[in-house]
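hi! just following up on the protien thing from before. the input was this:
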Amino acid sequence: MAEKNITDQLAEVNEYEREPVPENKVKGFRSFVGMVAGEHIAGTEFVIGPLFVLHGVTARDIFLGLLIGNILATLSWTFICAPTAVKTRTTIFYQLERICGFKLVTIYNVVNILLFSATAAAMIGVSSTAVGLLVDVPMPGLTDVYPSNILSILIVVAIGSVIAIVATMGYDQVSNFANIFAPWMPLIFIAGAVAVLPQLGVTSLDRFWEVANAKIWTGTAVEGLSQYTIWHVIMFSWLCNTAMHIGLTDMSIYRYAKRATYGLASAVGMFVGHYMAWLASGILCATALQAGNLNPSPGEIAFYSVGLAGIICVIVAGWTTANPTIYRAGLAFQVVLPKQKRWRLTMIIGVIATLLACSPWLVSKLDQFLGIYALVAAPVGAVVLIDVFLFPRLGLQSNYAEVTGSSFNSIVFVTWAVSLGVCYWLYVYTGADFMFFMAVPGWIIGAVLYIVLSKLFQPKMVANKPTTA
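and the predicted 3d structure came back as:
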């Protein structure tokens, strides 16, 4: 039998972009544990953990704040995202098209594609800093905004190309990749943190808390950076993945879940990745600062503690986050251009992400970028949740655009625009220094506004349009 060429094989990969996942394709709990563990034990942990150190969080605030925030994040996946995904078994992009119409969902998806691409770019950039150390090429530090040299750009292009190819192969390959590498990454984080504790003065467990307050989470921000409190820690750890849980983009993943309770798998990613790994990378960052490196790269932070294993961990950690992110972006792009093959669009997203990764600015401003992402996604997640679960009980029409043939649901557009506008006004009026603080108000305003506007205007809109179903 003649071997099929690569494009034929890719064309045969069915990701159910525009139909529900069939029951015989759902996956077991273990598949989701590997996926979320791989995604949330990632290259960003080598950026976010150090940010809490640099912004002067106290030891009490980091331990307690991460505990509360990660519990809230797990509950958001379990009771909001996974139930919606299992109920519809579609991606949010297709479900949203059924609700608000092709023209409006195109606007949202283009915004999403840009945000996904930027997130993946940050991961490619983090992995590249480790590769740079391997080949002795200077790479940008945590606060740099421009590339170090042409060789650093070539490294970024090489890493981005490999990540894009894996994402192009579809959900199974992305999941398999994560399952292979996820189990040992936490061990690298723990080993690195434990190894450097004596350098900070921790010679016994009794000394840990004293050193943690004096040398790691000191309560004093470095010059030029804002002061973070426990509220910053709680809101960041809860809402840094807003787009995925209350924003519902992880419907792309959990639509394959046999049961909605599989949302609990997110706890593995949260408490191993966003708790333990953030603490560990904070300890590693403090060690680098104490050694006199005031602007270390993620690769350098890992290399100081566990050498070559740390470098490999940073490379793989970036990959395991970038892969599913580019995969999601490909699904969003496929809704915008439904006649094009998903793998081809995913490859284009990979190229865009790689080009963006050539600018270290995305890594240095990662916390601010994720805050904007959270605010944009929150109201849309509220609209989909309300439409799927509450509209039938309220006597309102679910999937309005699909039923009426509308290409632009003005109620959804007004809900989204007003929610963003009010939250941005609140952000400016209150002088908040953290965009994440606006994500929850955005979600609540979006949910309430969508119900009120639909009650007022949807019956007349439905009456004026002949239904197609």
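The chain is about 70% helix and 0% strand.
The mean pLDDT is 85.
cheers
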